[in-house]
Specification:
This protein is an all-alpha fold. It is built from 1 helix and no strands. This is Secreted proline-rich protein.
């Protein structure tokens, strides 16, 4: 039985125009909101 030679997947191209990934954008919006809500509920 013969298997083809293993080749690693080529690296995914990063966006060159400096846009944020959706996950990064969601985290940038969500984390400060959660911190603010936690700070207001603590009082």
């Amino acid at each position: 039985m013969h298997y083809p030679r293993y080749r690693a997947a080529p690296p995914r191209p990063r966006p060159a125009n400096g846009t944020l990934s959706p996950l990064t954008f969601v985290l940038l919006v969500t984390v400060p909101a959660v911190v603010a809500v936690a700070a207001l509920r603590a009082r």
